[in-house]
Each structure stands twice: as C-alpha cells, then as structure tokens.
C-alpha cells in the first residue's frame, strides 16, 4: 500500500514539474527568433554589432550541435531585421575571417551595399585577427574601416583550388573513362593533367575575378596606382602597412570602433550598442562571437571534427590559404 501511495505521489510531482519547467526537446531543429540584447547605453538610438566570423560561404555549417545557417544567411538575416528598426542608425561589422568563396563574398558585399542604400545608415568595420581576401572584399562598402593593431588584412586576389588524383590512381591501377561533348567539358578534372589550353582558360577566369576585386578596391579606397600595384600582388599586410596603403582608415580596438561609429553617425554618447541573438548570454559583451546561428543546444548523434581544409570544395575563392584551419 505504501508503494502505491509513493508511486502516486511521484507521478503527481512529475506532472506538476512538467507543467512548470521548461521543456527540452533534443530533436527540435526549429531555431528561436532573433532577439535584441543591449551591450551598453540607454538612449533611443542604436548601433547594431554584427559578427562576421569564419569561412565566408552560403553553405550550411556543421558542428557538434548539428547544422546551422551559413555565414551569408547569418549576416543577411540580421541586416534584414535591422531594416525594420528605425532606431538603428549604424551597423558595425566585427570581421574575423580569412575569406571564402567568390560568390558568397560578393553576396555579402552586395547585401551590405543594399542595406546602406535602403536605410541611409552608416556601416563601419572592426577587423580582428584576420580580415583577408573575401573578408576584406565585403568590408569595402563600409564608411570606415578600423583594424586592430595586430590585424592581418589584404590578400586582394583570387585562387582556384582543385584536387588532382591522377597520380594516386595510376599507382593503384585505377582509371576513369570519360565521354564528353565539347572539348573543354572536363576542364579541371582531377583525373588527368590539364593541357596548356585549359591552363590558359582557367588562368583567364581567375584573372577576371582578380581584376574585379582590384577594381572594387580602387573604386572604394582610391589608394593610388603605386599602392594599388602593391595591393594587387595579393600579399597580406599588418595594420600599419594597410593604413599606409589606404586599405583601412584607422588602427584601434573594438571600443574605439564603437566610438568612431557613434561619431560618424552623429549619435549621442548614451546611444545603445545592441546585438541580435537567439538566446540571452550572461555577462554579454563586444567580444562574444555568438550571432544569428541556431543555438538550440541540440546534439548531433554523430559528428566528426574535420579540418577546414578538408571540407573545402574545388572552386574559385577570395581566400588567404595561409589562414585555413587544420584543427
């Protein structure tokens, strides 16, 4: 009889708990809506900080918690939300990336330009560890670019990367037979060496994308012919070199970038600095890299960490290869 009473009491307790406690569903893949959180300030006007971190791609990202939106989607969803808030007077992009695909970089360049044109708001960039190649490309529409004293930036160029497997296949006695229509249909195939005509065609493609990048640098930054020639070697630069070449406007820290953004937008000292997140973060601050990614806490049943370099597909990139992660 005592056992029965105890079981009834436990059942009632569990039912009551289920009514009052938050429910956790590890299989729920639906992200929560973006919410605004204030980092500092109490005024009416706002500066929105948007982190731009990692490989610039329009492909979903995979980690231990499952798939999450691509970097392009994360940035665009925040820009779109900002368009609906008339109290947001400026956007500060906190950039930490070695670049990414040509198309994804150009998509963000276009979205940032479109945001400025539609709202009339100021856009500034604060560069962190690395803001190279595609990350610099998307920064070009900004009204002000500030680099950290130890930032690496530049790498204004393009690279076409594709694997070659024909040597390995020969060693193991494996071949690939191809029937094609059009003599250049299998140009760039990993199963054979490229001929001279194909190499020239590929180089022409790379040159076109590279000239587009250099042309945008000239348009937005007007560095002068000598500086542009140095920039177009696609090397990276430390912050003081980048300042001399007019790739950036100032050198400073993230707090300096906020102050410069406030000044550029003509905002009062008490203007709010806000971020968009899908959940609250205790003791939130500028250096938190959380953004519009799905933060559901949903664990992926199978996840194997793969080095960034092994996740890359053959393609054309605005990317500094020296910063590709191996861990």
Summarize this structure briefly.
With 327 residues, the chain is α/β, with parallel strands linked by helices.
Question: Could you explain the architecture of this structure?
Answer:
The protein has 327 residues and is of the alpha/beta class. It has a domain at 29-159 and 233-323: 2-enoyl-CoA Hydratase, Chain A, domain 1, CATH 3.90.226.10. 35% of the residues lie in helices and 21% in strands. It contains 10 helices and 14 strands. The longest helix has 26 residues, at 196-221. The radius of gyration is 25 Å and the shape is globular.
Biggest pleated sheet: 9 strands, mixed
- What amount of the residues lies in strands? 15-25%
What is the architecture of the domain at 29-159 and 233-323 at the second tier of CATH? Alpha-Beta Complex
Number of helices: 10
N-to-C series of helices and strands? HEEEEHEEHEHEEEHHHEHEHEHE
**Average pLDDT over all residues:** 83
Distance between the termini: 60 Å
Radius of gyration: 25 Å
- Roughly what percent helix? 25-40%
In the CATH hierarchy, what is the superfamily of the domain at 29-159 and 233-323?
2-enoyl-CoA Hydratase, Chain A, domain 1
Structural class category? alpha/beta
The total strand number stands at: 14
Oligomerization state: single chain
Low-confidence stretches: 2-10, 12-28, 302-306
> Which fold name is given in CATH as the topology of the domain at 29-159 and 233-323?
2-enoyl-CoA Hydratase, Chain A, domain 1
CATH top level of the domain at 29-159 and 233-323 is Alpha Beta
Broad shape: globular
